[in-house]
Amino acid sequence: MTNILFVTSSPRGGASHSSKVAERVLADLVAHNPSATVVRRDLAADPLPHVDEAYLGALFTPAEARTETQAAAVALSDTLIDELFAADIIVIASAMINFTITSTLKTWLDYIARAGRTFAYVDNAPVGLVTGKRVVLVESKGGIYSEGPMKPADFQLPYLRFILAFIGLKDVEEITVEGVAFGAEQAASAVAAAEIKASETARAIAA
Question: Which of 94, 101, 109, 126 is deepest in the core (most CB within 10 A)?
Answer without folding.
Answer: 94
